[in-house]
Design goal:
This protein is of the alpha/beta class. The chain has helices at residues 5-8, 14-26, 31-45, 61-69, 80-89, 125-137, 214-223, and strands at residues 51-55, 72-77, 94-97, 109-114, 139-147, 161-168, 171-182, 185-196, 199-210, 226-231, 240-245. The protein has two domains: 5-152 and 212-245, Rossmann fold (3-Layer(aba) Sandwich), CATH 3.40.50; 161-209, Single Sheet (S-adenosyl-L-methionine-dependent methyltransferases). The strands form two sheets. The protein has a seven-stranded mixed beta sheet, sandwiched between helices. Strands 6-7-8-9 form a four-stranded antiparallel beta sheet.
Length: 246
Amino acid sequence: MTVDPAVESMAYSREHADIYDMIHSGRGRDWAAEADSIADIAVAKRPGADSVLDVACGTGEHLRRFRERFTTVAGLELSAGMRELAQRKLPGVTIHAGDMRDFDLGQRFDVVTCMCFSLGYMTSVGQLHEAIASLVRHVNPGGVVIAEPWWFPEKFLDGFVSGAVTHERGHVISRVSHSVREGGRSRMTVRYTVANAQGIRDFTETEIHSLFSREEYLAGFARAGVEAEFQEGGPNGRGMFIGTRG
């Protein structure tokens, strides 16, 4: 699948991809436990589920565990740097290049997931509904779709700041972020300092997420023919939408 370079430029940079796993490992993130909890929900909803597509799969950490739980696994990722890392970790697993708004892999799965608030990168309600429809198109009848939202408007903390220092694999990495509300979106400025034996470098990235309401997400699932429910909690505290395709 060919990805429009203008679209791909919105994805995580290669610099970010190179340190992504180290940052999350240093913060104690347990990708395997997250994947197990998602798989448990999916199998409870669809007993015998045996295939999964992880959309916006990042560096493939959830897929590593999914491969132990399902016979057939595949990923879709927009960022070239993230795709390369995922493919390196998962030889034999197909990591597709694609935009979640309009991808078509020509196959369906028992389970389709879209985690790490990736739907929040959509810039309008129309795009959100297009992305949800794309997820649902790839689900077998009776299959399950599980998606994690970005913060709802009433949950977002305007002016929120965060910071952490990670020591991993001969690197010291600091990450400092500041988030503000701009109308119906949030803008998060993230500054990184990375030190290793080769020296010290700094870079800054800006992440813009839409503050969609719970009702706007649910409307997207309904339009796609899925009656979804919202479950509080989830891997990152933002909750998850869980639905079954009729």
